[in-house]
Amino acid sequence: MIMDQLLETIRTFDGVLELAPTEGSAFPPIAWGDHFFYYAPDGQVPEREQPYATIVTKNYPDDALSDLDHPDRWRLNIHVGRSTLRELTGEDSVDFAAVDTVLPHPVYRAQGWVSIVNPGAATRTLAVRLLREAHDAAHQRAARRDTTAPRKSMGTDGGL
C-alpha cells in the first residue's frame, strides 16, 4: 500500500482533520512531510487531545528503531488501546524495522499505539480497519467531551 492510497482513504473519514506540515509552515522542520490525524469536524485541533493516527517519514531523535531515514520508508502509527495492542502484537521481541507487519510502536506502545512500516498486502485491510476504529473512538471521545463540558450560565440578567 503506498502512502497516497492510505491518505486518500483516511481523508474520506467523516470529520477528519489532517495536519500535514510543510517547509515554511508554522510547524518545526522535524514534522515537515509527516501527517497527523484528528477527529475535528470544526477544523480546529482539539485541545488536550493527541492525534489518533500519524504517518511519519523519517526518524525522530528519540525514535529511530524503525529505520525510516532510507528512501521510500515510512510508518503508519495508530492508537488502538492497550488490549488491542496485546491482541495484535503479543509480547515477543520485536524487529521494529520489519516491513508490512503490525508492531507495537517503538516509543508509545505503553500508551496503546501500534505501527506498521510500509503497510502492504499483508496489513492493508487490517490497517484500514484499525484506522476506522481509532477515528470512531476519537469521535466518541469528542461526543463525551461535548456532553460533559461545563455550560456557561446566563445568570439572572440573561447574560447581558
Helical proportion? 25-40%
SS-derived structural category: alpha+beta
What spatial order of strands do you see in the largest sheet? 1-2-3-4-6-5
Estimate the global geometry from the Cα principal axes.
globular
Number of strands: 6
- The helix/strand series, from N terminus to C terminus, equals HEEEEHEEH
- Multimeric state of these chains? single chain
Spatial separation of the terminal alpha carbons: 57 Å
List low-pLDDT spans: 151-160
What share of residues are in beta strands?
15-25%
Mean pLDDT: 91
Using the CA coordinates, give the radius of gyration.
18 Å
Largest sheet, if any? 6 strands, antiparallel
Which descriptors apply to this entry?
6 strands; globular; alpha+beta
Provide a descriptive summary of the structure in words.
It is a single chain. This protein has 160 residues and is α+β, with helices and mostly antiparallel strands. It has helices spanning 3-10, 82-89, 124-148; strands at 16-19, 35-39, 53-56, 75-79, 103-104, 113-117. A 6-stranded antiparallel β-sheet has the order 1-2-3-4-6-5. A hairpin with an 8-residue loop joins β5 and β6 (113-117). The longest helix is centred in the last third of the chain and has 25 residues, at 124-148. It is globular and about 40 Å long.
